[in-house]
Amino acid sequence: MQRRDFLNAFAAGAGLMIPLGREAWAATSVQRPTDRKLIVVMLRGAVDGLNVVAPIGDENYTQLRPSIALAAPGKDNGALDLDGYFGLHPALAPLMPLWREKKLAFVHASGSPDTTRSHFDAQDYMESATPGVKSTPDGWMNRLIATLPGTSTPTRAVSVGPTMPRILSGQAAAINIANGSAAGKPGVLDRPQLATAFDQLYMGHERFGKVYQDGREAHKEVMAATMAESMAADGGAPLPNGFPDDAARLAVLMRNDPNVQMAFFALGGWDTHASQGAGTGQLANRLAPLGQGLAVLAQKLGPMFEDTTIVVMSEFGRTARENGNGGTDHGHGNVMWVLGGGVAGGKVLGDWQGVGNGQLNEGRDLPVTTDFRTVLANIAERHLRLSDTQLAQVFPRMPSSSGLRLLRA
User: Does domain 3-22+36-394 have CATH number 3.40.720?
Assistant: First the structure.
């Protein structure tokens, strides 16, 4: 194996992306540039936003969905009343305390202006933040890392999952950690004899030494931060498997390692073409651990949650009318979720036009009345303090501001 091949394999195995031919950003006058955190959760497969935040006050909603519409609040497995018109899916009950505390908001009829109903293309556009353009070389979270003040460290952005996602691809460094308990388990390079051998071979190498050293240091940093959680958890019952468990681990990692500023999750299983269900069933079974995990994340972040913004998004929505299989097909507009200590919550925001035949896109699904980039840019500007020039770097060809105010500060 050539040295180049080894280093590429090492970086891929460690889940590390190292910037090549680029100097790290210099520290600025900001005392702690990583204090304000951002976590993005991508629901791959197109979640049905019309049953996540359902327009229960619109009679057209139940007519369009005779078997899968959520029941009215107060009925068995009925929606959880948000504002008298919209209702939250009952499987997301763990999020209601955040709604009441005004730390949770929704932006309905939001999404990508591109009309594709291809999962692959739509996800690519949301992760690059350049709808309709497939040639964009990097993801918007990677561009955001490069734009933020302070030194860019390999652990400043973390992805939790099996592979490094498109949204974090680019020149800025990022690290990938595995789902589940494997995230904190030692690997082959944690064996002292092997580690020493590789250190001697590559640590001082003129060309590849920096790449290797960054990878080793990032791995050590994550392992040290996650070990504290493993030791503390031995005295209590384990959390359920899946997202709640991963969310808890991420919260502890972020508390223990101040260098971690951004994180990304990708969760699948939302393509409900058949047997979707209403208050119970397939969709409810997917939403329950998602809601629990978000609540766990907010709780375990502790005081850090006040300086954290969490965004949940999906590539597009689903049809307003249920299909013949008791499910929904690929649609257009959806709902974005925003959680955090600085969120001006307790509201369903956006330009909501209803679900009547004359109000639907192509007579079949929600229109996109709020571009997803407007939501992200609002967070980047008001939470992460980006200037107009910086916003243009992260979100090129962004539409003009819609006056959306998601954050108090």
Answer: yes
